[in-house]
Amino acid sequence: MEDEEEFEIMGSPETNHIIFDIESDSSSIPLVTITTLNLRSGPGITYSIIKTVPPNTLCEYYGENYNGFYKIICENVNGAVWASSQYLKSHTSASNNTPISDKVLGNILNVNEVKWLKYIGQKVVPQLTSYYNGNREIALQNAAIVAWWSLKEGILQIENAIRFNLCDPNHVVKSNQWDGICAKENGFGTWQVGLAAIQSPITEERAKTMIVNLENNICKKLGLNPNQALLNIVNEAGFGNDIAKNIMSSQGRLRASWLLRIPSVSFVVQLPIINNECFSGNVRNWCYSSKWSPSNKYSPTIESMSIAVNDVKNILSKY
Question: Cα separations (Å) of 123 from 30, 130, 144, 190?
């Protein structure tokens, strides 16, 4: 490896490589790495290494440059990073119709956020369109509201948001535990699951009532067979058929928590809750915050919430 004081690489660079005109008025330019490359927290080799990526990693120019370093977004890397410009080259197919530089409230989305919004646009919106009797406009608007909620809750930053499982009272994320059931504390608990970050029932009695509604009403109207949908979503979560069989044969809180991980189901259930808490006359304080991340980017004020939802809707409408 070359001395990092001169080369910000792990490998051999192409020499005299011109990437693009830095004065271009384009704020989103697709790039690809030409060698194994260190991505850093700032514009220089004295800044910490966030991640080292292999050649042919797709990135996009973020719109800032300093001292030969470009601020970029790269696939499988959370947030914006800096890299030496001489080890990047233009790549016209890098965006592949899913631009990394989509923005909400002016904030560029990271790769996982883009991935999950694309998932929602391609898989959830069509099912919601069917649920709302073929009205795609209503489906997009309602999907955008729930997707905004998940975005500001940080769920869309997770590599596999389908398997998200949050347990109180210690708010421990147990995303690798397929049968994790949150214990109630003094009769109360918050148990968020899945892509919509929806609260799963904390008591067995409530779970049984919810299962009847989810399977006999919501799944039916969405055109879903409950067990087949459970099989599909458990596999999307990465747990496989054997665990899927256990979940499909389960009852009570465990089954309810997995039915709520079916994205279109959770979006239908979550929508009126979000509307009541965040877009009614009495806005709850957990709907917005300028203090904690990522809500400070996607929901810093009451006034910003509807604007952010519209930004999300515009992104979903492309798919």
Answer: 26, 12, 13, 27
